[in-house]
Amino acid sequence: MRALASLFALMALPVYAQNGAAQPGAGLNLNVMSMLLSLLLVVGTIIALAYMLKRFNPNMANNDDFKVIRTLPLGTKERLLVVEIDNKQHLLGVTPGAINYLYELETPLKEREMAPLAKQLSHILNTKKKT
C-alpha cells in the first residue's frame, strides 16, 4: 500500500513543480479523478458494445422452439446456419436477399458451448430485457 502511495506521490511531482506553492495532494486528486473517469468510460463502452452484440447477434438470442446450433460465415454477408426446429436439425443458406433451405441433417450436431463471459453477459442482458 505504501508503494502505491509512493508511486502516486512521484507521479504528482511534476504538478507540484509547475504550480509552485500548490496545495499538497491537489495534483494527486486530479490524477485519481482522471483515472476513475477513464475507467468508467471504458466500462461503459464495454457494456454498450455488449448490448449492441446482443441486439444484432442472432446466436445469443436462442429460445426453446428455434435454436441456432452452428454458424459458418462464407463471406461478408453470406453464411450457413444449422438450426434446430422440432428436434430436427436443418442446414440453411442465408444471404442478404434470401434464406434457402439446403438439407436436413441425419446425424445431429452438438451445440457449441458459449464462453463463460458470453454466458454472463447474455444472462445480464436477458434479465434487463425482461424487466
TrEMBL record:
It is found in: Cell membrane; Bacterial flagellum basal body. One of its GO terms (biological process) is bacterial-type flagellum organization. NCBIfam families: FliO_TIGR. PANTHER family: FLAGELLAR PROTEIN FLIO. Keywords: Bacterial flagellum, Cell membrane, Cell projection, Cilium, Flagellum, Membrane, Signal, Transmembrane, Transmembrane helix. Residues 1-17 form the signal peptide. It comes from the Bacteria. Its main location: membrane. InterPro entries: Flagellar_biosynth_FliO, FliO/MopB. It holds the Pfam family FliO. The chain crosses the membrane at residues 33-53. GO terms for cellular component: bacterial-type flagellum basal body; plasma membrane. It comes from Pseudoalteromonas ruthenica. Belongs to the FliO/MopB family. This is Flagellar protein. The keyword Hydrolase does not apply. The keyword Nucleotidyltransferase does not apply.
